[in-house]
Design a protein that fits this description.
By secondary structure, the chain is α+β, with helices and mostly antiparallel strands. The chain is built from 15 helices and 28 strands. The strands form 8 sheets. Strands 3, 4, 5, 6, 13 and 14 form a 6-stranded mixed sheet that branches. A 4-stranded mixed sheet has the order 17-16-15-20, sandwiched between helices. A 4-stranded antiparallel sheet has the order 22-21-24-25, with no helix packed on it. A hairpin with an 8-residue loop joins strand 10 and strand 11. Helix 14 runs antiparallel to helix 15. It is globular. It starts with a strand and ends in a 5-residue tail after the last helix. The structure holds adenosine-5'-diphosphate and magnesium ion.
Length: about 625
């Protein structure tokens, strides 16, 4: 298949340029970085004048107009925590319900306005999605790369943890698009790390690989099977709250105790920040020396390597327990493992390497800088996709995303562009109206957020859904794409077992040039598409909240005071007004105000209802 390239500046479509660069990006929880292939070898890129290629994954909103990323943003973590967003990767593709354990640990505010909706981050009076914030980090990396290479960069491979689900992967893709990047592929981090070691880059390799990744806040262990250049994830395990940050915490706790640091000092933000920074400094320096000491205020902060190792051994034993479970899930024994790869900044601590090699009974690979391995491997993957590695198998892929229309005319992608063919994927939906008997399924192809900008492939109706309240039916939509590009779409309602199916020729009647143009317009319009999408999503959410509030008011008349009733009605009508004419931020703010007021009332009413239901019953 001939390759088509698109020029994002002037909108022209042409044959692939020979010297086009595809960048590889490690979008990390703590640090992100970008790499490319230089003279046949992957290298990471430093910001002009910077000392390291690591960009802390931190976004600081100095004002609404001015956003800073990385090192500079990190400096504001203590003084302006509510305007400084870190660990945004933890929020990607998640609803608030998924995050009850995370939200208390963050210094900034995350919002949920409806059941199951995706989270938003509030900074000042603006609301951001994790996709928009991740896009800011990606823009920074894209910028670092194009400055370094002195040319526009528009194509990228981005890595994600092996355990990321469909919606987290789609969110990562959307963030890339918003940053003006054509995301050619989403690659698993452990796969990228293996590629950085040149494992799996030759078709004859057949190996079982363990990737032990200990980062700033997360631990991931993955077991991969590589055959004929194809990577299969056999099992993954890990702990989303275990990493180098916990080493720092352990050192801080040790100093607090050993030096009896006064409560007054611990109230002082600047002192606490100095303590935190010194702990990380101590940890890093103990990776290459035997002791650390530094004077901060009246205290002499000291720790030896032995003491440090004692502190973190229990944490490391936990990672080994998780490794043991992972082996079991993959149905492999230690003897079956061909290679072990260390990834993540925290594996630079020597005891980590020692314990991991003892556990797996072999020398571990750490010759590629563990900070950089994932980004370097992403660059190797980009090189393979560019067709520069002739011995690599290139699989057939879908050229455009396939999906269905959801409420408000939004495109919901089910099989993303560049997925392997054949491929199958599905998602569950529900109804939005009480007693809805029919559901129209309209199938579209393309990358834009609104279906009107995409190509319609067909539509059909799932009928005969038995009467149920809105939100009750479980409607499963399955896409099955065969090797010839024929798409079968199946819709079924799982509670009643009704089902309908259609067949669609997805590639029929579209040229490569047209596909390239569709792709280009999706990147050129990414910003305005995202704005339209967030407005429609906010309006849909507002509509749900309004409906629920009306139901709540009629059903619980007896338990709500007149004042409360009046106030609730006032807030609902304000939300109604914002929904018609407001911006997404105004709609979100109105929902937040209504929710803050109604939550305690709803809780009280629920208690009353439960008490009534239990009256006279033995429990
Ligand atoms: P993530 O994948 O979560 O984005 P990284 O792989 O960049 O994170 O790891 C960041 C962690 O590595 C931080 O906790 C940092 O303190 C730690 N780290 C970096 N360099 C060293 C070192 N030389 N010795 C020990 N820990 C280090
Ligand atoms: Mg990482």
């Amino acid at each position: 298949m001939a390759k088509i390239s698109i020029n994002l500046k002037d909108g022209t479509v042409g044959r692939e340029e020979q010297d086009e660069v595809i960048i590889g990006i490690d979008l990390g929880t703590t640090n992100s970085l970008v790499a490319y292939i230089k003279d046949g070898k992957p290298v990471t890129i430093k910001k002009t004048g910077g000392s390291s290629s690591l960009v802390p994954s931190i976004i600081h909103f100095a004002s609404e107009e001015s956003i800073v990323i990385g090192e500079q943003a990190a400096e504001q973590l203590v003084n302006q925590p509510e305007r400084t967003v870190y660990s945004v990767k933890r929020l990607l593709g998640k609803s608030y319900d998924d995050l009850t354990d995370v939200s208390q640990r963050l210094g900034y505010k995350i919002i949920d306005n409806d059941e199951g909706g995706l989270v938003k981050i509030q900074v000042g009076d603006k609301f951001y999605s994790p996709i928009e914030l991740s896009a800011e980090i990606l823009k920074e990396l894209k910028d670092v790369a194009s400055k370094h290479l002195s040319k526009a960069v528009s194509k990228a491979v981005i890595t994600v943890p092996a355990y990321f689900n469909d919606s987290q992967r789609q969110a990562t893709r959307d963030a890339g698009k918003l940053a003006g990047l054509d995301v050619l592929r989403i690659v698993n981090e452990p796969t990228a790390a293996s590629l950085a070691y040149d494992i799996g880059t030759s078709r004859s390799d057949s190996e079982v690989i363990v990737v032990y990744d200990l980062g700033g806040g997360t631990f991931d262990i993955s077991i991969l099977m590589i055959e004929d250049g194809v990577f299969e994830v056999l099992a993954t395990n890990g702990d989303t709250f275990l990493g180098g940050d916990d080493f720092d915490e352990a050192i801080i706790a040790y100093w607090k105790d050993a030096l009896s640091i006064s409560p007054a000092n611990l109230e002082d933000k600047n002192f606490v920040q100095a303590l935190r920074l010194s702990a990380e400094e101590a940890k890093k320096s103990l990776s290459s020396s035997d002791s650390f000491s530094k004077k901060v205020g009246d205290y002499n902060l000291e720790i030896s390597k032995d003491q440090f190792e004692k502190l973190i051994t229990p944490l490391l034993e936990k990672t080994l327990d998780l490794s043991r479970s992972c082996l079991k899930d993959a149905d492999k024994k230690i003897e079956d493992i061909d290679q072990v790869i260390l990834v993540g900044g925290s594996t630079k601590t020597p005891i980590v390497k020692r314990l991991v090699s003892d556990f797996f009974k072999k020398e571990v690979n750490d010759t590629v800088d563990p900070d950089q391995a994932v980004a370097l491997g992403a660059a190797v993957q980009a090189d393979i996709l560019a067709g520069n590695r002739k011995d690599m198998l290139l699989l057939d892929i879908t050229p455009l995303s396939l999906g269905i229309e959801t409420i408000g005319g939004l495109m919901d992608t089910i099989i993303p562009r560049n997925s392997k063919v054949p491929s199958r994927a599905g998602r569950q939906y529900t109804t939005s109206v009480d007693g809805q008997a029919n559901l129209k399924v309209a199938v579209f192809q393309g990358e834009r957020d609104l279906v009107t900008d995409n190509r319609k492939l067909g539509e059909f109706v799932l009928s005969g859904i038995p009467p149920m309240a809105a939100g009750m039916p479980k409607i499963d939509i399955k896409f099955i794409l065969d090797a010839d590009g024929i798409l079968r779409v199946k819709a079924s309602e799982l509670r009643s077992n009704i089902e309908t199916e259609v067949e669609i020729k997805s590639q029929y009647g579209i040229s490569e040039e047209e596909m390239a143009l569709m792709l280009m317009s999706s990147i050129q319009n990414a910003q305005s598409d995202m704005e339209k999408r967030s407005l429609i999503e906010a309006q849909t959410e507002a509509q749900n909240v309004i409906l629920h509030s009306h139901k709540f008011l009629t059903q619980n008349k007896d338990h709500i005071s007149t004042d409360e009733h009046l106030q609730l009605e006032k807030l609902v009508s304000q939300l109604e007004t914002q929904k018609q004419s407001g911006s997404k931020d105004e709609i979100n703010a109105a929902m937040e105000t209504l929710n803050d007021y109604s939550r305690p009332i709803a809780e009280r009413v629920m208690d009353v209802n439960i008490a009534e239901a239990l009256k006279g019953k033995d429990i």
